[in-house]
Amino acid sequence: MHQRFMEEAIKEAEISLSEGGVPIGAVIVKDDEIISRGHNRLIQNDSVILHAEMDAIENAKGLNYEDYRKCTLYTTLSPCPMCSGAVLLYNIPKVVIGDNTTLMGAEKLLKDNDVEVIVLDDDRCRELFERFVKENPGVWEKELAKVGNTTELK
C-alpha cells in the first residue's frame, strides 16, 4: 500500500523537476485516498517555505483536527524541521519517507512527538534527488545556505 502512494509523491517530485525545481514531492492520504498533493516550489516561486510537505499541507485546505488525525503524509525525502513542525502543528500521526540517506531531516522530532515514521529506502527517491544535485551544481547548496544547513546533505 505504501508504494502506491509513494509513486504519487514521486510523480510530484518529477513535476517539480520538470519546472526547474528541486525534485521533492509529497501527498497526503486520508482513508486510503489522496486528498492533497504538493511539490517543492522553492526555485519556481522564489519561495523560502514552499517545500513539498508545506505545499501539500497548504493544498489540503478545509480539513479539521479530526481529519488531520486520520491522515498520512508521504514524502520522497526526510522532512526538514519546518515541515516536521507543520506535521506536529496539524497533528498528522504518520509520515512515510521515501529516502533518508541523501537528506536527514527532523525525524527525531517527529518520533519524540509520537508521530509514526516509516522509511521505505526507495532508490528512486534517492536517485532523483542525487541526479538533480549532480546536474545543477551549486543550486542545492545555495538553498541550504539560506537556512544555515539545518538539513544535512549526505
Q: What do these coordinates show?
A:
Strand 3, helix 4 (about 80-90) and strand 4 (about 95-100) form a beta-alpha-beta unit. The N and C termini lie far apart (about 30 Å). With about 150 residues, this protein is α/β, with parallel strands linked by helices. Residues about 150-154 have low confidence and may be disordered. Helix 1 runs parallel beside helix 6. About 40% of the residues lie in helices and about 20% in strands.
What's the quick description here?
The protein has 154 residues and is of the alpha/beta class. It is built from 7 helices and 7 strands. Helices cover 42% and strands 22% of the residues.
Offer a few descriptive terms:
7 helices; two-stranded antiparallel ribbon; globular; 154 residues; disordered C terminus
